Amino acid sequence: MSTHDSSYFQVALSTSLVVYGFDGENLLTLIGQKPQEPYKGAPMLPTTMVKPDQSVEDAAAAVLTESLGLSDYYLEQLNAFSKLYRKPEGRVVNIAHYSLIKHELMERKPAAGYQWIRPKEMPDLVYDHNQIFDFAQERLKRRVKHRPIGFRLLPKEFSFNQIHLLYEQTLGKKLDKRNFHKKLMRSKLLIDEHKAEKMDGSNKPSHLYSFNEKRYNKLNLRGYDFKF
Questions:
Q1: What is the largest CA-CA distance in the chain?
Q2: Burial (0-12, 13-18, 19+ Cβ within 10 Å), 84
Q3: Residues of the chain with CATH 1.10.10.10
Q4: Residues 199-220: tens digit of each pLDDT
Q5: Which of 15, 38, 43, 162 has the fewest CB atoms in 10 Å of its CB?
Q6: Burial degree of 25 (CB within 10 A; 0-12, 13-18, 19+)
Q7: Quick one: the chain helix, strand, coil %, rounded to 5?
Q8: Do 99 and 86 contact (CB within 8 A), yes or no?
Q9: Distances in Å between the alpha carbon of 82 and those of 12, 117, 128, 129, 137?
Q10: Which ranges in the chain belong to alpha helices (H)?
Q11: Residues of the chain with CATH 3.90.79.10
C-alpha cells in the first residue's frame, strides 16, 4: 500500500495531562469531567484533541490555560498511549504529559468541571486514563530521586516538614526525618533563611528554608541519586 494512501491519515491525536500541585500539606492532582457522550460526566484527566495546525505541546499548554488559567508551569512528555480500541469514537493516539504547578498558583480556583484531589483518591477514569495516571506516578517518583524537581511544587520559603511531607507523598512511603534532613543538607539545595513562622495547624514556629537555584539548575541538568 502506498504511504500516500488517505487511510493513513484517518488517525487523530490527543493529549492528556496529569497535573500535580502541593497546597503545603497535600500532594494534589487535577481531574475533570467528560463534557459529552459517550460517558458524559465521567471523571477524566484534563484532555484535548490536537488540531491539525497545532503542536502537541501547544495543545497541552492550552489545557492548562483552560483548566487553571496558567502560563507558568513545568511540562514533560510522558508516553504515547495507542491501543487500537482505546476510544470507541475512533482511532486516537494520546501523547500524554505531566505538569507541576507552583505553590503560589495553587490558590487559583480551577475552571468549572475541574477539581483537585489527592492521588490516593483517584476514581475510575474514562478510557485508559488510569493507566496514564499510573505511568505519571512512576515517572514522578523516578524524577524526585534523580532530579530536584520536587522544589517546583514548594512555596518560595518552606519548612522542613513541608518538604518532608511532599517527598513522602510523592514516593508513597514513610521517610525517616533525620536521614532525610541529613541527605537534603548534604545536597546543598537548601538555603537557611534564618527565620521562622507559624504554619497552619501548628502553634510552634517552623524554621524556613528556600532552595539554592544555582545548585538546583546544575543538579537538574546533571542529575543526582537521592536514595531514601
A1: 73
A2: exposed
A3: 155-222
A4: 666 667 888 999 888 877 776 6
A5: 38
A6: middle
A7: 35, 25, 40
A8: no
A9: 11, 27, 10, 12, 19
A10: 56-68, 129-146, 160-171, 177-187, 213-222
A11: 6-145
Bridge partners of 79, per DSSP, are: 96
- Give the residue carrying C-alpha cell 503545603: 24
CATH code of 6-145, in short, is 3.90.79.10
- pLDDT tens profile 28-50: 999 999 988 889 999 999 999 99
As given in the structure block, the three cell numbers for residue 216 are 538546583
Cβ-based neighbours of 183, under 8 Å, separated by 6 or more: 226, 228
Side chain identity at residue 213, one-letter code: E
78 sits in which H/E element: strand 74-81
- From 25, 23, 2, 176, select the one nearest 107 (Cα to Cα): 23
CATH code of the region 155-222:
1.10.10.10
